[in-house]
Amino acid sequence: MTATPDLGTSQLASPDLLRSVFRQHAAGVAVITARGATGPVGFTATSLSSVSAQPPMLSFGISTGASSWPAISGADHVGVHVLGEHQEQLAATFARSGADRFGAPTVWHEGPEGVPVLDGVLAWLVCRVVARVPAGDHRIVIAEVVLGDHAGSGRPLLYHQGRFNGLRD
After folding, report:
1. Any idea what the Cα angle at residue 82 is, between residues 165 and 36, rounded to 5°?
2. What's the pLDDT tens digit per position in 79-90?
3. Which residues of the chain have pLDDT under 70?
4. Torsional sign, CA 161, 166, 27, 163
5. 43 with 34: CB under 8 angstroms?
6. Burial grade of 129 (CB within 10 A; 0-12, 13-18, 19 or more)
7. Is the pTM of this model over 0.90?
8. CA 70, 46, 13 angle in degrees (round to 5)?
9. How far apart are CA 48 and CA 85, in angstroms?
């Protein structure tokens, strides 16, 4: 027999409830990049998800209030970077509003389709944007994988309880 949830502590739907529940959910950390009108843009995302194997597609969410949204909203291609546990500072830089995300110590190069590609990540992909789906104050971006590299070494960076973490054995 399964335990019944304690409905006495339940709360009505709210942004705070959603945030509190997702603090309990460990998620992989990625950085999404694109070429903007005035230079490269990027942001840290924990909403990365595989969508389809054939064709290979993925999705991620972005707030329409994010500084990267204007570039992402018009980009034909984006870069998707899976971060390693040694890249906590990189994740924090791309999550911080107003940060010089592509300045030192960030190491990157221009990749295919002009997409900024971060060096030293566990894996990266360049993807062609196929849809931007409205979802509240966000957009869900669906993109088809064009090419990538999964040859990085190390363990993935995770986000849990409002902090970056590594895997434990």
Report:
1. 120
2. 999 999 999 999
3. 1-5
4. positive
5. no
6. middle
7. yes
8. 90
9. 17
Task: Report whether 42 contacts 126 (CB < 8 A).
Answer: no
Amino acid at 58: L
By CB atoms closer than 10 A (0-12, 13-18, 19+), residue 36 is middle
**Among the residues of the chain, which ranges form H helices?**
15-23, 69-74, 88-95
What pLDDT was estimated at residue 1? 59
Kindly state the greatest CA–CA separation across the chain: 59
Q: Using an 8 Å Cβ cutoff, are 158 and 26 in contact?
A: yes
pLDDT for 133-160, tens place per residue? 999 999 999 999 999 999 999 999 999 9
